[in-house]
Amino acid sequence: MSQKKSRSRGGGGAAAAGDDHEDLARPPPLQAVLLADSFTLKFRPITLERPKVLLPLVHMPMIEYTLTWLESAGVDEAFVFCCAHSNQVKEYLEKSGWAGRAGAGSMAVTAVESHDAISAGDALRVIFERGMIHGDFVLISGDTISNMSLKDALREHLDRKKKDPLAVMTMIIKHSKPSVLTHQTRLGTDEIVMAIDPETKELLYYEDRADNSNLYVTIDKDILSNNPTLQLHNDMEDCYIDICSPEVLSLFTDNFDYQHLRRHFVKGLLVDDIMGYKIYTHELRSGYAARIDNFRSYDTVSKDIIQRWTYPMVPDVISNRNCSESRLHRQGIYKASDVTLSHSAQIGANSVVGSATSIGDHCRILNSVIGEGCTIGKNVVINGSYVWDNVVIEDGCQVSNSLVSDGVHLRAGAIVEPGCVLSFNVEVGKNALVPAHSKVSLLPQPSNEDSDEELEYADTNSGVTDSPPFSSMRSNGDQATVPSEEDESGTSETGTCGVVGYIWTSGDAGILEEWRQSIAPISKEKLEELQHAVSENDGSEDESNNPTLPDKDDSSDSAVEDDDLISKFEKEVEETFQRAMGGGVNRDNLILEINGLRLAYSLQHADCAGAVFYSVMKSALQAAQSTNDTLLKTTAEALGKWKDLLRNYTKTVDEEMEILLKFEEMCQETTKEFSPLFSKILPFLYDTEVISEDAILRWAEEKEHADESDKVFVKQSEAFIQWLKEAEEEDDEEE
Amino acid sequence: MPDVQPLVSDFVLKLKRRKVEGSHAVARQTAELLRSVVSQHRMGSSANQAAALADAVRAVGEQLIAANPIELAVGNVVRRVLHIIKEEDISSTAVGIEGLSVTVDSDDEYDREDDDRPSLSAAVLAAHARNALRAPSLQTLLEDIPVSPAISRTASSTGDSDGKSKSAGDKTSTRKLKHDVIAAIGDLIDEIDSCYEPISEQAVELIHQNEVILTLGRSRTVKEFLYAAKEKKRSFRVFVAEGAPRYQGHVLAKELVEKGVQTTVITDSAVFAMISRVNMVIVGAHAVMANGGVIAPVGMNMVALAAQRHAVPFVVVAGSHKLCPLYPHNPEVLLNELKSPSDLLDFGEFSDCMNFSTQDGSPLLNVVNPTFDYVPPKLVSLFVTDTGGHSPSYMYRLIAEYYSADDLVVRRKSSA
């Protein structure tokens, strides 16, 4: 009797307590879609073997943070969309106990698998087809770390939707200042320009690929005329947490060309005023949210976690279910209880050392995260690096600002320079030097870069991931031979033995991206360079703003003014061109419009040719996925498509020359991505008859007398020019 | 106890995620959870029922304490429950041998009475049961003198009673043990809930007419204490230090003004400047340690030092669930928690100071946001608990009445 009574009392008490803290639980359960695939290649080569969401971030897989946050934010049901490496994700969900956990108060996690999806848009279309979402849902990617309370944002969203059913999405944004020098956020992404209505918080304009070479933002006139007030922000960070209405899914299905959540969906919705869908923003005031997009943000977010901005998601509070507790010591040092630490070893501030790791004499660990089961020898210096589990680092190694994956073996005296990424089970030989910003993997770099998905490698890799025999075999037999096959320039300066594994060439958009998005801090020289560039920019801006108050002599002033005019003209042509690309404006009309613009700016026909060419190349660059091969391909496509248009402006040799000069200028200044491709694109221009051989030869001739720096591209395309000359001579002879 | 496991893991998760915070809420929910653990526990036919039950509680308690070691109230309640089991075991053994005697009457009391006397008398019982180890306390001297003969008989007989109780350990006695334990835990919950009343009853004795009281942050116990004094028509003024970085003092100021108390809000840093005008400092605590030291919201040590400098009495009000039998060996590291720096700084405003890409990779800006301070016992003038006022040097004895010495480390014995 009394037992029963007390049981019911106990149960009632627990339920009451539950109600107090779960006030988000409402009749329509809150659902969440978690994309366990980033649909980018930023974390290659590591993501060839393990999906990004399972990469450890301060000892815990990223997805664990996301799921934990979703659960604590009151989400009742979460769908994990897995694509590449779906088996690994599903296995993790089961092993960690997220999947198949039903019951009051806990979040149900269901894995959704699809191998066809190659973008976030595809994923949402799959979700829609399966009909799993019934109400408003949270859209999040599996690499988002947050501790924010969703309550306010959710209430705002629902209230707004009641009043206006067209308010389909609420984006969470956070105040964060981008760097003045690099024009990127602290997470290594480009700064975003947003226009927001200060009253309603409606998002009016979104541009995440702000061109930082010219400091312009172009906003449609309609936006300005329709909204009496608007705030322009470049100090907001997109958290990539969205509260969406179910309509969002059907919008993705209706517009099957929507791939990217921001670049296509958000921009598409903002431009499209027929349907009138609206996107709103919610600014995060207290709380933390950030998405790990690249290695730079991996570094930044790790440091934020160590500095406890993500509390309670910090290493000493939530720990992985199977590993032992780590404790916070002074100066932000987190240490597991069973670390073997030499007395003479020194662990600096803001470091994390995982369980069962041993650290030898006179080691210095600074600002680093060391995983579990690592063995670190004597006199090792690890600075600002992320060392994952079961890594062996022998005596005297130096690792700075790099990422060292599971099972890597650094033999004695190896040096890993800043910005390196060593993928799984890579071995670095004795006294070898891994040059800065190199990416090393046991898997070869895929040659066909045009496919975006990591998907197709999923099957081949599942076998490789955990096969120690493979690596050990290689280390015994191939150690001497393999390095010689590798990138010669990379290993030429290494010591006696090189690196077991393939050093990936940094094809991805050249040197530029490398310092932007690596773990290593930007080097001092680079910073000075940027500082210099900024001060120069400021100077020129001042001049152009105050043309009436020239502080230089008149001739340069007029030149500046002239340049300014041309750049404005180019800008307009580019926009016109882009509109034509998007809306499919008739080519004749386009020519008409451009001609109109030319008259308005009273410029030469030649300027027009340059501007149009610039726009075409620009469009190719935007369509390309930042690798040289694809860039070449898209450029070829764009040129093929618009050759008629270009030909319309290249009636004389002068105009063709203008195009060549413009192209050269672009390669040197604005769009350096093209510079390695100059010699490859030039023949193509010739083939499509945009530029005649006369123009090319004259250009080469003119350049002969120029200084060395100007001749870079002539030299690059020397072979082609030579060929042209010979062909001409042959023609002459025949005649 | 398969049925309670979901409840336990749910609560563990809540503690881990810091969804349940504050010693009162934590203590209450722990007690409720342990009550359902006890009620779901299947009493086997093993020889020692009480030990099995204690083991079950210990197993759960261990998980709970590990989930959030900073919430000392969890451990306190677990130890209290273990102590209750021990007491009930002794008393039921006593019943088994002595027949229906005084202790049975007190069992009936459990069902009827709501005040804390039964559990106290139970404490007395246990104290007497092990009286060889312990000197008589003030509590036992004042109360329950008629009980003691029965107890002393019990105590003398427990030594050889084990064998007999096993043979007499029929189903009724085991069920009775469980029933008694559940009832006692129910009393413990009531005690936790109503701990403010006996404390605030003492308010009029401590707060005199036209006095100036200083407090820091917001403590519910302090609030009730001041309310009670106000209700008794005392007129006094309160200085509230706002209690950065959470500024709970602002909330308290609002609440006090609603009750018509003269209130002045000051910054934490103004405490020293104002302390010379203050007659008494009354503050709450997160936990009271066995040495009489106090774990309290951050900034408290400064207030205590200021009070000592100007010889102002420093009074700590705390319910008995905050009494912790542990000693603070390493308070800076072990018994503190660093919260998110976002309480202190606006992330967006300082984001450019944390741009690691342009700062050579090492964070130059560090923000530390500790939650608690440790106030050493020599700075505390008086503790006001639900059993009355005590000096810091007496705390260890008070604590000894609530907990048994062998429960200080909550760990499953089965593993040993």
Automatic annotation (TrEMBL), chain A:
Keywords: Cytoplasm. The keyword Ribosomal protein does not apply. Residues 459-482 have a biased composition (Polar residues). It is found in: Cytoplasm, Cytosol. GO terms for cellular component: cytosol; eukaryotic translation initiation factor 2B complex. GO terms for molecular function: guanyl-nucleotide exchange factor activity; translation initiation factor activity; translation initiation factor binding. Its main location: cytoplasm. Pfam families: LbH_EIF2B, NTP_transferase, W2. PROSITE patterns: W2. Signal peptide: none annotated. Residues 1-25, 442-498, 531-561 are annotated as: Disordered. Residues 563-734 form the W2 domain. Component of the translation initiation factor 2B (eIF2B) complex which is a heterodecamer of two sets of five different subunits: alpha, beta, gamma, delta and epsilon. Subunits alpha, beta and delta comprise a regulatory subcomplex and subunits epsilon and gamma comprise a catalytic subcomplex. Within the complex, the hexameric regulatory complex resides at the center, with the two heterodimeric catalytic subcomplexes bound on opposite sides. Belongs to the eIF-2B gamma/epsilon subunits family. PANTHER family: TRANSLATION INITIATION FACTOR EIF-2B SUBUNIT EPSILON. This is Translation initiation factor eIF2B subunit epsilon. It comes from Digitaria exilis.
TrEMBL record, chain B:
GO terms for cellular component: cytosol; eukaryotic translation initiation factor 2B complex. Residues 152-172 are annotated as: Disordered. It is found in: Cytoplasm, Cytosol. The keyword Cytoplasm applies. Pfam families: IF-2B. Keywords: Cytoplasm, Initiation factor, Protein biosynthesis. InterPro entries: eIF2B_beta_subunit, IF-2B-related, IF_2B-like_C, NagB/RpiA_transferase-like. Gene3D superfamilies: Translation initiation factor eif-2b, domain 2. GO terms for molecular function: guanyl-nucleotide exchange factor activity; translation initiation factor activity. Belongs to the eIF-2B alpha/beta/delta subunits family. Component of the translation initiation factor 2B (eIF2B) complex which is a heterodecamer of two sets of five different subunits: alpha, beta, gamma, delta and epsilon. Subunits alpha, beta and delta comprise a regulatory subcomplex and subunits epsilon and gamma comprise a catalytic subcomplex. Within the complex, the hexameric regulatory complex resides at the center, with the two heterodimeric catalytic subcomplexes bound on opposite sides. This is Translation initiation factor eIF2B subunit beta. The lineage of its organism: Eukaryota, Viridiplantae, Streptophyta, Embryophyta, Tracheophyta.
